């Protein structure tokens, strides 16, 4: 968005892009399903969040606590659901539970403890301020879909190769059961399902098929953990073909972001 764009022009632009994405979703979603569209507003101003709310958006996503905290406070009167989708440091948990309905990036046991402790503190803060208690925090377990088997599909490339080096966050699939047990045992947290970002060096459909298989296994143990948070601007169709219930769409609605900072 350039600073010369008027609010009315920006509204029209967002409306058109949102409509295109909604149409893509309705074409790709299996019959009888109604996936949740989370509009990822990172890097874009609170004014855009307001315009989106006016266009019927209910769910918004952010990946940095500082930015999300400020934007959610500025738009508190809109009653939106905020989804935290970025890598989360444990020391930010207390801040995140003040505004977030859901965290999609739960990837380690220490973060589960931090979020649970933060929920206790937050409920006490609300009680002290005569505010109603908040709802339980929805937790999606983020999975690293890269394959550690060097000859398997989506293998993790060696450091120095394209796509090598640090991954896109998430627990290894083998660690999911312990993580699920930990979330399920905490009264302030609700096990909502699984989340992943498709690896860059692989067909997203193949990666999302593995995520769906992990979801099936999780639901065998925890039937209520039925969420699959998957699908971004470039791969939402592939995600919907593999059971995505929550889509996280940024650039195809807001426009291109400035280069990664
Ligand atoms: C930024 C982001 C998205 C949205 O990506 P787009 O390609 O802009 O649609 C989705 N998920 C996560 C975790 C993100 O950080």
From TrEMBL:
Residues with N6-(pyridoxal phosphate)lysine modification = 42
Question: Has UniProt tagged this entry with the keyword Cell membrane?
Answer: no
**Signal peptide position in this chain?**
none
- Coiled coil ranges (UniProt) are none
| Low complexity bias: start-end ranges | 148-160
* InterPro entries with a match to the protein in the record: Ala_racemase_N, PLP-binding_barrel, PyrdxlP_homeostasis
Q: Which domain of life is it from?
A: Bacteria
Write down the Pfam families for this protein, in alphabetical order: Ala_racemase_N
Q: Which cofactor does it need?
A: pyridoxal 5'-phosphate
Region annotation Disordered: residue ranges?
148-173
Enumerate composition-biased segments (Gly residues).
Answer: 161-170
Residues annotated as domain Alanine racemase N-terminal: 166-258
Q: Which GO molecular function annotation, any one, does this entry have?
A: pyridoxal phosphate binding
List keywords of the entry alphabetically.
Pyridoxal phosphate
Q: Which family does it belong to?
A: Belongs to the pyridoxal phosphate-binding protein YggS/PROSC family.
Extract the PANTHER family matched here. PROLINE SYNTHETASE CO-TRANSCRIBED BACTERIAL HOMOLOG PROTEIN (PTHR10146), PYRIDOXAL PHOSPHATE HOMEOSTASIS PROTEIN (PTHR10146:SF14)
Tell me the function of this protein: Pyridoxal 5'-phosphate (PLP)-binding protein, which is involved in PLP homeostasis.
User: Which protein, by its recorded name, is this?
Assistant: Pyridoxal phosphate homeostasis protein
Q: Which organism is it from?
A: Arthrobacter jiangjiafuii
């Amino acid at each position: 968005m350039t600073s010369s764009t008027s609010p009315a022009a920006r509204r029209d632009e967002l409306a058109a892009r949102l409509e295109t994405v909604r149409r893509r979703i309705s074409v790709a979603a299996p019959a009888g399903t109604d996936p949740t569209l989370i509009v990822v507003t990172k890097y874009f101003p609170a004014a855009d969040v307001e315009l989106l709310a006016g266009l019927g958006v209910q769910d918004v996503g952010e990946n940095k606590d500082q930015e999300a905290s400020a934007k959610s406070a500025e738009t508190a009167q809109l009653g939106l659901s905020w989804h935290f989708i970025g890598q989360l440091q444990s020391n930010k948990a207390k801040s995140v539970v003040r505004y977030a309905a859901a965290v999609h990036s739960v990837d380690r046991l220490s973060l589960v403890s931090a979020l649970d402790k933060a929920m206790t503190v937050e409920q006490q803060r609300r009680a002290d301020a005569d505010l109603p208690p908040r709802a339980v925090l929805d937790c999606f377990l983020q999975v690293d879909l890269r394959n550690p088997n060097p000859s398997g599909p989506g293998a993790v490339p060696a450091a120095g190769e394209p796509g090598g080096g640090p991954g896109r966050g998430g627990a290894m699939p083998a660690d999911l059961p312990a993580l699920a047990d930990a979330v399920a045992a905490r009264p302030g947290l609700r096990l909502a399902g699984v989340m992943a970002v498709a690896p860059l060096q692989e067909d997203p459909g193949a990666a999302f098929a593995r995520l769906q298989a992990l979801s099936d296994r999780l639901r065998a143990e925890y039937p209520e953990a039925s969420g699959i948070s998957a699908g971004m601007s470039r791969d939402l169709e592939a995600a919907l073909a593999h059971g995505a219930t929550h889509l996280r769409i940024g650039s195809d609605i807001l426009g291109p972001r400035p280069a990664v900072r």
